[in-house]
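$ ./design --mode recover --in tokens.txt
reading tokens...
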């Protein structure tokens, strides 16, 4: 917009200068025309006078001299007019050339500014497009890295759910009076005493004025003392109220902590007694402590069967849409659009199958690490995905004992190989949601 405003301003100035030049040329032509008319009128008058003298007969010599002088002056005047006309023509040609050059210069400047503005706008679009493409590519790369490292992250940070570590302690900090425990300095009488009089007290009126000033000072001191006492009473009341609030908050915190710790103690005793509801609650607590990517669902159903010392787990898996279908984004300047480099279908299938396998293994790792051997010895896992309607197609199913899990070398192993060692039933093509029949359909106890 600044370039457009500059172009309009330059073209307006050029038009103004061209108008001024035309007005100057018109004024010069009018002046030369008046000069010619005056010279023609003077020449005509001289010719008429000469004719009259010739017709009258004898002509004095002096008159002939005057005529000769007038003729010379006329010739000079004609020569001057010719020179002026020539200078005017030269000036007009020069002015026209100068105006043409100025117009050409302004047009060139305007064209250059237009091209510069278009180039800057193009560069701005290209930079914005490149930044957007880089941002999208970085987001896709980060998401792929997270999906590919689910199992490695779980092995690097195994969960250990310790009920004793979950116990709380009362810690609301020491009482903070907020300055209410510090009393303000009471007013002193000497601070209100009037200044010594400038004149002796034995002078007329000085004693009365001094007594009046002392009485006023005494009254001011009494009012200040009363205000101080009232402020102190307010401070003490606020301090007592704040202490009561602190004691109340401390009592509430103690009650909450005791209730929480008592619930943990009851949960610990119930888990040791292998009560189904307690084991399921503890397992749900353990699974909730794992941090999953935001797009992952966490819907889980649990069923504990104490007669088999077995925990059945059915968990919703992320759908195939969790895997990015674009490898890289690139800005296309000629179309002003973001181009996409798609991921090969074989890579998409392999990555999603890895996500399914890693999710199942992470759940097994967390549950075996959190639950005591005497409480859970076998874990049966079923994984399903949300589909159209009410269908819940299963993609993976397996049952693992603690001994089998402990015998596996889970580190430095590919998740798909671990599932093969565990005899897991896995969908032949999880990416297209080809369902399987689970080992045992999950039927929660009534």
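writing sequence...
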């Amino acid at each position: 917009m600044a370039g457009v405003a500059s172009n309009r301003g330059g073209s307006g100035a050029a038009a103004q200068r061209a108008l001024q030049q035309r007005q100057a040329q018109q004024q010069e032509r009018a002046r030369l025309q008046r000069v010619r008319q005056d010279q023609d009128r003077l020449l005509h008058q001289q010719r008429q006078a000469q004719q009259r003298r010739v017709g009258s007969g004898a002509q004095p010599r002096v008159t002939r001299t005057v005529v000769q002088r007038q003729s010379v002056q006329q010739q000079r005047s004609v020569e001057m007019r010719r020179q002026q006309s020539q200078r005017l023509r030269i000036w007009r040609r020069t002015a026209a050339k100068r105006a043409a050059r100025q117009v050409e210069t302004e047009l060139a400047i305007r064209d250059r500014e237009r091209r510069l503005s278009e180039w800057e706008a193009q560069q701005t679009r290209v930079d914005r497009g490149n930044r957007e493409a880089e941002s999208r590519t970085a987001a896709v790369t980060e998401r792929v890295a997270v999906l590919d490292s689910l199992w490695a992250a779980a092995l690097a940070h195994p969960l250990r759910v310790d009920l004793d570590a979950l116990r709380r302690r009362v810690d609301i900090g020491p009482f903070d009076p907020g300055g209410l425990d510090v009393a303000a300095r009471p007013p002193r009488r000497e601070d209100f005493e009037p200044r010594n009089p400038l004149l002796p007290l034995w002078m007329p009126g000085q004693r009365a004025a001094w007594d009046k000033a002392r009485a006023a000072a005494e009254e001011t001191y009494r009012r200040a003392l009363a205000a101080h006492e009232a402020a102190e009473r307010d401070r003490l009341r606020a301090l007592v109220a704040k202490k009561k609030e602190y004691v109340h908050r401390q009592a509430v915190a103690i009650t909450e902590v005791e209730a929480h710790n008592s619930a943990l103690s009851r949960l610990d005793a119930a888990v040791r007694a292998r009560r189904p509801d307690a084991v399921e609650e503890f397992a749900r607590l353990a699974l909730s402590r794992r941090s999953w990517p935001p797009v992952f669902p966490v819907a889980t159903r649990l069923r504990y069967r104490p007669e088999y010392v077995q925990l059945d787990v059915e968990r919703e898996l992320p759908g195939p849409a969790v895997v990015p279908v674009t490898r890289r984004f690139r800005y296309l300047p000629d179309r002003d659009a973001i181009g996409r480099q798609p991921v090969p279908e074989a890579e998409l299938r392999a990555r999603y199958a890895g996500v399914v396998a890693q999710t199942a293994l992470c759940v097994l790792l967390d549950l075996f690490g959190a639950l005591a051997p005497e409480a859970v010895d076998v874990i049966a896992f079923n994984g399903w995905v949300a589909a159209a309607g009410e269908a819940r197609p299963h993609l993976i199913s397996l049952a693992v004992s603690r001994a089998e899990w402990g015998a596996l070398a889970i580190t430095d192993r590919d998740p798909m190989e671990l599932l093969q060692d565990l005899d897991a039933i896995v969908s032949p093509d999880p990416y297209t949601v080809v369902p399987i029949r689970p080992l045992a359909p999950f039927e929660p106890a009534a």
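exit 0
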